[in-house]
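Table S2 (text version). Query chain:
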Amino acid sequence: MCFSATASFTSGVVLTIVGIASMRKASISSGLAFAGVPFIFAVQQFSEGFVWLSLNNPAFAGWETISTKIFLIFAHIVWPIWIPFSILLLEKNYKKKNILYLLLGCGVVLSFSYAWCLAVYPVVAKIDGHHIAYILNYPAVLFTLTTIFYGLATILPAFISSADRMKLLGIAITVSYIFTSLFYQEYITSVWCYFAALLSIIIYWILYGLEQLSLNIVRVKIKDPI
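Corresponding structure-token output:
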């Protein structure tokens, strides 16, 4: 994330708290993966905190490679699978489930491509002003394809989902991605992940709505038993 190690660690703590609250709102087992999103963002922000430390403090220089790769593993490998998978588990509509399976497949292909690149090509993190720039030496042809697949896997599922309030999450993610692309293009991996992490509060709101819906269904069944 931009700003500093302190900001990254603080964000990690806040996201952990949001994650705990989200888990408590996950009234159904199918919502646990979705509720776990803030926790994953927390780990990602903690890892970038160590990237900051490794670049600023010689005592932590040995952490640079591992912390950089952990951050990129979450940004490029975990999210393209986890986002469509967690939304798929919440879906009740059969036709929409099939579309989400397709988007999950796109995410799996993308994640394996990123994993291969991360294992084969060198990556470098450097501080540029108040941001961290991740220099990826991947083949140029992959960048266009991965950008398309990343959007399909991480943004489109929220618009496909029939879960209450999920489209708001999709809109918020899209706006944050466009904003980051326009104003922080060179630091998009770091800055967009930060903005996306802040959207975890919407995840809590979605789970709260699903919990209320579940409670209402239970009340109806109690009042009108079949």
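Notes on Table S2: Confidence is low (pLDDT under 50) at residues 213-222. The beta strands are 123-128, 131-136.
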